[in-house]
Structure formats: structure tokens, C-alpha cells
């Protein structure tokens, strides 16, 4: 049998074998993410990562504290030193109990040349520096940061924003290091032994006031606010009270400082038993969140959505052996469905896990809104694919799933993504219904825009196109705009009801309210332009792409204005990313309006042959 025959035989088996191989790949990938972390050099870091603490008003595993702190300081959740990987948990243990080691690790990202010049450092191949390189210049960094803090955020220069950001990260590092014991001062075990001495009172007050988190659980029946810092625990010991959990933390620190794996593991086993007895609900909550942190479902979602995109693209390109279009679709299309479904499943699992862990609706901040917008758009894309089965639903669902989850990942640098809700958002029943409904409208409007972008790309990348596919994409975009209009309008009305109950007025022309109204009006304009014959297929698609501009401004833009009840802070990086996105969408609007393959030079009559039946009024 020749090579060509073998290739065709293999391809003939792929329609049923390929999807099953994809399923096996998905199961193995998800299972590997859920496996507990293996001991590092004999240390049971998993047990330490599971310990519950209170930070930012929320009980969480100490693993979350370490991940968020390192993410804010270094923009990564792990790093390498001398070829060895340092996890966030290991870095946090060093920062807490071995400050000299932590100070020598390149944990601080500093890329601004003026900030480096302020510290007398040269810009090299690496943008990561240890704290000991920053420490001699803290006074000058603080002076420059205080000057920048007194200015309006939009008026700060690049240097001022960078130095203020560095000072905030240095302050976070300082608080972490001063949570359990003071650098250069007696260890936690020694502080416990000396708790009743007059000299210890000042150190106890400092540990109480600068602690980044509270590791000591409250008495049975008390609320989260009753969790105590180490400083408070030492003060209680000075007053004659005993605290076995505090003693357990001291033993863990002593073992880690001595780098004694056996003693560390035994101390961790004893402390875990004490924590389970003192705060069983907190231990269960922390264990669940640790699994969520380890699985990283939204990172997995990006990976599976990308694989779905690759598979659907392969279904449109030739396979070896001269396979037909039908064979290509039968081989790659089912695989794309498996990966898209896997992405949707892990995306949904992550969304549900966040709801359970927070005890809140799915949308509480910009990060969660990006996750939810993507989820809605992917769900609608899957429905479109189930209805039409041409690969376009998979394409737009995968693309918007990747895009929104990447946006969400870029919003994690602000710290805990499951933070306590802002006061302006933490109110009544109408909050959850309004925010969820209007976010569904965001997802629908973006999905219509992505469909229009696919239509535009086909116009200019394909020499010959199936007019039926163009009409199908136009019908899909039209239907999604109807869907988006309904939810945008309903969400805006529900927001007015919420505002009436929370602020005493239904409508106040707040920038966020104006943005929501613009989305409703633009979707209505698209439909009326289509109904009235003012916009045909090409005009519909151009207007749908421009809907991305309006929605992005309503979603992110109004938060950066610094005014209004919905303004949550100016974000420099987000501003430039938003500007670039809007510019790209305007370019795509122009391409949608231009004739197909407008740059191609054709012989007389050639353009007519290229356009053929695809010609449509450009309005």
C-alpha cells in the first residue's frame, strides 16, 4: 500500500478517532491541573498553602495571599532563581520567616528608565530586581511618590505613575514582611516567650498595625471581622491568655527558618489540626479556593478556545492526500466542537466556583465582568453553531472567549479578583439582576461585532466566496443584535430601579448610565437602519463593528473619567489598550465599507468576475 493510500486510510478513520483523542487530551489536561502539588525538597507546601487567613475583609487560603502579592509586585505568580522555580507559596514563606533570603530574590519588576536612574541602576536584559537593590533608595522613592499622589491621576507623568506604583509595591512587601514577625527583630517564637516584657509592647503594636493579613481564627460563632493579627495575639498572651494556634505558627516559622523539612511537615500537620478544630468552615472554604487557584480554569479556558480556533481553521484548509471539503470538515470540525465545549465547561466551572467562593452574583468588578461577558458570548456562539453548523459559531465563540479571558487576566494585577464589593455596588436585589442583565447585553453586542469582523475578513481575504455564507453571517449578526438590544434595554431599566432604591433617583445622567443608554440606542439604530433599507448587508456589518467601540467605552471608558458614581479609578495601561482597541475597530469599520479586495489590481472585467454574485450595495 502506497503512502498516499495510507494517508487517505488514516484520514478516513479520523472522523471518529479524532474527537475521542481530543476528549482524552482534555481529561488528562484537566486532571493534571487538579492534582495536589508535590512536596518541594520534602516540604509539604500544599498544607501551608491551605491555611485560612483574613485579608481584605475576606477569609481565603494563604496561597491566595501569596499569589496576589507576588502578582502585584512582580506581575507573575512564580519565578525562577538559578534555574529553580520559586512558587508564590515558597516566596511568601521566605518573606515571612527568612526576610534576608526574600530580599535577595528578584521579585520587583522595574522597567521605567527614569525610576531606575533614580536608584542609580542601569537598564539591563532583566527588568526584575531584588528588594535589597531598592531598599537604599526608599526615602527618595517615597518622596517622589507622595508628590505624585497629590496630583490628579490623569495629569501624572509616566515617571510619576511608575514611581508611585513602585512605592505601593514596596509598601505591600513591607506589610507582608511585618505580618508574623519583624525583620531583624526576635522571631515569632521568641516574641511569644517575651510577650509579657515591657520591651515587647512596641513590637506587638507594630505587628498589629502593619499586618497584611490576620492568621488567628476568632472564637466560635464570631464573624470574619473577629480574626486577629499576630500582634493582637501577642497582646492577648501578654494579658495571660493562651493561643495554641499562634504557637503553631511559631513552630512552622522556626522549622522553615532552619530549613528542616521533617520539623516543618510535623508542625504543619499539628497547625492544620488546630485550625480545623478552631475554624472548620474556614478550612473547608480555604481548601476549595486552593483547588480553584491550582486549576486556573480561565487559563485552561484560553487554551481550549485557542485549540478550537486552530481546529476550525484547519477545517477550512487542505489536508494531505487531496481530501475533499467534506472530508476536511468531517475530520477537524468535530475536534473543534470538543475543544470549544471543553473551554465552555471549564469557563462555566470557574464562574460557578467564583460565585460559591464569594457568595455573590457572577459580576462584582471589572475582572468578573470580563469573565462573564466572555461566557455569555461563547454560549450564544455555541447556540449559533448548533443551529447552522458551518464553523462560524465556533470561530466567533472561540475568538471572543480568548479575547475576554485575556482581558480578565490583564486585570488581575490590581490584587484579589474576589475582593469585597465596592459600597456603590453592594446593595439590594436589583444590583444582581441589573448587572447580570446588562453584562449579557455587552456580550451580545461584542459577539455581533466579532461576527461582523469575520464577515469583513472574508470579504478581503477570499478571492471567491460563497454568497450563502455571507448572508448567513449577516443573519447571525442581525439576530445577535436583537438579542443584545433586549438585554441592554432590560438591564438599563433594572439599573434605573436599582438607582431609585439606592440613590433616590431613577436617572441622573451619570457617565455609566449614558454609556448604557448609548448601547441601547446604537443597537436600536442598527435594527431600524436595516428595517428601513438604509443599511444592507455591508452597512449592517459596519455598524455592528462600531458597536464594539460604544460598548468598550461604556464598559471600561467611563470608569477612567474620574467622575460619576461608577468611576472606579484611572488605569493607565487600560487606557492605552482601550485606545488601541478603538483604533483597530475604526479601521475594521473602514474595511467593512470598502469593496471586497479593493487593493487587488484586476484586468478589465476582472473585478466583476471576482465579485460575481457577492456584489451588494455598500451602504
Q: How would you explain this protein's 3D organization?
A:
This protein has a two-stranded antiparallel sheet with strand order 1-2. A two-stranded antiparallel ribbon has the order 3-4. A two-stranded antiparallel sheet has the order 5-6. It is mainly alpha-helical. About 1% of the residues have low confidence. Strand 1 and strand 2 form a beta hairpin. It has 25 helices and 6 strands. The termini are far apart. 67% of the residues lie in helices and 3% in strands.
The unreliable regions are 318-323
What number of domains? 3
Oligomer: single chain
How many DSSP E strands?
Answer: 6
Keywords for this entry:
619 residues; mainly alpha; globular; two-stranded antiparallel sheet; 3% strand; 3 domains
List the helices and strands and how they pair.
Blueprint: H1 3-34, H2 45-49, E1 52-55, E2 58-61, H3 62-74, E3 78-81, E4 84-87, H4 88-97, H5 99-103, E5 108-109, H6 113-118, E6 128-129, H7 131-134, H8 138-149, H9 158-177, H10 188-193, H11 200-210, H12 230-238, H13 244-258, H14 261-278, H15 280-295, H16 297-314, H17 325-358, H18 366-388, H19 392-410, H20 429-461, H21 467-503, H22 511-531, H23 537-555, H24 572-593, H25 606-611
Antiparallel strand pairs: 1-2, 3-4, 5-6
Amino acid at each position: 500500500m502506497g503512502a498516499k493510500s495510507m494517508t487517505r486510510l488514516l484520514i478516513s478513520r479520523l472522523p471518529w478517532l479524532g474527537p475521542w483523542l481530543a476528549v482524552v487530551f482534555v481529561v488528562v489536561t484537566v486532571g493534571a491541573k487538579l492534582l495536589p502539588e508535590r512536596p518541594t525538597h520534602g516540604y509539604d507546601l500544599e498544607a501551608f498553602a491551605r491555611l485560612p487567613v483574613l485579608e481584605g475583609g475576606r477569609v481565603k487560603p494563604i496561597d491566595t495571599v501569596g499569589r496576589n502579592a507576588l502578582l502585584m509586585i512582580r506581575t507573575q505568580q512564580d519565578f525562577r532563581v538559578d534555574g529553580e522555580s520559586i512558587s508564590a507559596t515558597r516566596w511568601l514563606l521566605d518573606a515571612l520567616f527568612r526576610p534576608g533570603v526574600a530580599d535577595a530574590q528578584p521579585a520587583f519588576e522595574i522597567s521605567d528608565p527614569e525610576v531606575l536612574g533614580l536608584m542609580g541602576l542601569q537598564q539591563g536584559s532583566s527588568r526584575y530586581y531584588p528588594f535589597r537593590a531598592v531598599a537604599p533608595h526608599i526615602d527618595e522613592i517615597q518622596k517622589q511618590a507622595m508628590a505624585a499622589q497629590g496630583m490628579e491621576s490623569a495629569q501624572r507623568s509616566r515617571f510619576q505613575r511608575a514611581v508611585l506604583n513602585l512605592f505601593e509595591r514596596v509598601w505591600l512587601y513591607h506589610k507582608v514582611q511585618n505580618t508574623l514577625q519583624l525583620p531583624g527583630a526576635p522571631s515569632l517564637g521568641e516574641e511569644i516567650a517575651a510577650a509579657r516584657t515591657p520591651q515587647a509592647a512596641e513590637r506587638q503594636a507594630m505587628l498589629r498595625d502593619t499586618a497584611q493579613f490576620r492568621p488567628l481564627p476568632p472564637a466560635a460563632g464570631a464573624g470574619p471581622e473577629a480574626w486577629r493579627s499576630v500582634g493582637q495575639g501577642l497582646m492577648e498572651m501578654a494579658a495571660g491568655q493562651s493561643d495554641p494556634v499562634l504557637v503553631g505558627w511559631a513552630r512552622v516559622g522556626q522549622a522553615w527558618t532552619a530549613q528542616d523539612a521533617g520539623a516543618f511537615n510535623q508542625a504543619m500537620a499539628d497547625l492544620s489540626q488546630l485550625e480545623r478544630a478552631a475554624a472548620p468552615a474556614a478550612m473547608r472554604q480555604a481548601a476549595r479556593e486552593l483547588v480553584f487557584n491550582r486549576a486556573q480554569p480561565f487559563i485552561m479556558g484560553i487554551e481550549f478556545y485557542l485549540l478550537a480556533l486552530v481546529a476550525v481553521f484547519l477545517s477550512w484548509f487542505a489536508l494531505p492526500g487531496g481530501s475533499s471539503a467534506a472530508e476536511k470538515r468531517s475530520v477537524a470540525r468535530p475536534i473543534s466542537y470538543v475543544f470549544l465545549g471543553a473551554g465552555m465547561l471549564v469557563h462555566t466551572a470557574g464562574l460557578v466556583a467564583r460565585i460559591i467562593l464569594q457568595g455573590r452574583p457572577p459580576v462584582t468588578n471589572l475582572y468578573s465582568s470580563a469573565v462573564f461577558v466572555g461566557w455569555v458570548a461563547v454560549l450564544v456562539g455555541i447556540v449559533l453553531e448548533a443551529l447552522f453548523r458551518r464553523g462560524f459559531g465556533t470561530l466567533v465563540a472561540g475568538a471572543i472567549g480568548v479575547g475576554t479571558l485575556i482581558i480578565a487576566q490583564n486585570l488581575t494585577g490590581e490584587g484579589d479578583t474576589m475582593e469585597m464589593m465596592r459600597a456603590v455596588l453592594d446593595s439590594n436585589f436589583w444590583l444582581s439582576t441589573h448587572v447580570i442583565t446588562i453584562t449579557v447585553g455587552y456580550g451580545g453586542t461584542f459577539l455581533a461585532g466579532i461576527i461582523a469582523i469575520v464577515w469583513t475578513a472574508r470579504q478581503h481575504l477570499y478571492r471567491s466566496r460563497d454568497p450563502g455564507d455571507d448572508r448567513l453571517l449577516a443573519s447571525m449578526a442581525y439576530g445577535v443584535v436583537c438579542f443584545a438590544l433586549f438585554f441592554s434595554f432590560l438591564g438599563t431599566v433594572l439599573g434605573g430601579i436599582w438607582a431609585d432604591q439606592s440613590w433616590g433617583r431613577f436617572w441622573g445622567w451619570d457617565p455609566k448610565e449614558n454609556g448604557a443608554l448609548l448601547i441601547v440606542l446604537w443597537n436600536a439604530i442598527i435594527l431600524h437602519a436595516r428595517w428601513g433599507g438604509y443599511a444592507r448587508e455591508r452597512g449592517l456589518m459596519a455598524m455592528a463593528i462600531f458597536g464594539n467601540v460604544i460598548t468598550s467605552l461604556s464598559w471600561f471608558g467611563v470608569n477612567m473619567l474620574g467622575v460619576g458614581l461608577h468611576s472606579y479609578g484611572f488605569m493607565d495601561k487600560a487606557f492605552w489598550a482601550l485606545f488601541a482597541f478603538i483604533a483597530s475597530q475604526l479601521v475594521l469599520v473602514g474595511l467593512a465599507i470598502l469593496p471586497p479586495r479593493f487593493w487587488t489590481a484586476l484586468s478589465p472585467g476582472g473585478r466583476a468576475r471576482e465579485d460575481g454574485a457577492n456584489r451588494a450595495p455598500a451602504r
